[in-house]
Each structure stands twice: as C-alpha cells, then as structure tokens.
Amino acid sequence: MTWIKTIPIAEADEKLRHAMEAQRDLYPLEYAEPIHPTPDGQTSGIVASHSLIPDALYHAFATFGSLMSPDLPLTRRQHEMITTVVSVTNRCHY
Predict the structure, then answer these.
(1) Displacement of CA 38 from its chain's centroid (Å)
(2) Which of 5, 12, 29, 59 is the most buried (most CB within 10 A)?
(3) Is 70 within a domain?
(4) Domain that holds residue 45
(5) Lowest-pLDDT range of 3-7, 24-28, 30-34, 35-39
(6) Whole-prediction pTM
(7) pLDDT tier, 34 (very low <50, low <70, confident <90, very high otherwise)
(8) CB 38 within 8 A of CB 44
(9) What is the pLDDT of residues 70-88, one digit of tens each?
(10) Contact 51/13 with Cβ under 8 angstroms?
(11) Contact between residue 7 and residue 53 where contact means Cβ atoms under 8 Å apart
C-alpha cells in the first residue's frame, strides 16, 4: 500500500481513467489479471502512486508496455528474462 495520496479508479476523472486504461492496453494479455488484487480490484499500488499526475502515470508505465511489444525482435521469454534481471539488480520484489 502506498503512503501517498492516491485516486482510486472509481473516483478518477476522465483524464486519469484514460491514462490508466491506455497504459494497460499496451501490456501483454497475461498482465490483465492482477496477481495481488487491490481493494478496488484494478490498480496496483505502484500504478496508483502515480494517480495524481495522469501524464506521468501513462508515460512511466506505457514505456514498459512498449518494451514488451510482440513486434520487437526479442521473444517474450527474452523480454521476461531482461525484466527479471533488472528487477533483481534494482532489488525490486515485483
């Protein structure tokens, strides 16, 4: 859970809702269902922590979605391997 003010999707204005949905649309289908559901059932804490700045939310998370694109020359397995190594290097648990 984040310790900063966040805006749940149920209370989001159109700009925030669009940013959340647009970045989510870039992710592989396997990412559609949250592994650790939140009380609102939709927004992880890391995404929600950006909810006060919808443009930053979109750009920060759309970057990862774009990097996971099946149109790139790497396989999905290679993408996942790279993200795992980066997470371990950064001592990030997700």
Answers:
(1) 13
(2) 12
(3) yes
(4) 9-89
(5) 35-39
(6) 0.70
(7) low
(8) yes
(9) 899 999 899 889 989 998 9
(10) no
(11) no
Q: How far apart are CA 19 and CA 12, in angstroms?
A: 10
Instruction: Identify whether 21 is part of a domain.
Output: yes
- Picking from 34, 69, 29, the residue whose alpha carbon sits closest to that of residue 48 is 34
pLDDT range class, residue 53, cuts 50, 70, 90: very high
Tokens of 62: 């759309």
Domain count, the chain: 1
Farthest-apart Cα atoms in the chain, separation = 39
In which residue are the tokens 């995404």 written?
47
3 located within any domain = no
Which stretches of 1-94 are DSSP H helices? 14-25, 45-48, 54-67, 76-89
**Within a domain: 82:** yes
- Rounded distance, CA 94 to CA 90, Å? 10
Compute the distance between CA of residue 73 and CA of residue 15 in angstroms, rounded to an integer: 33
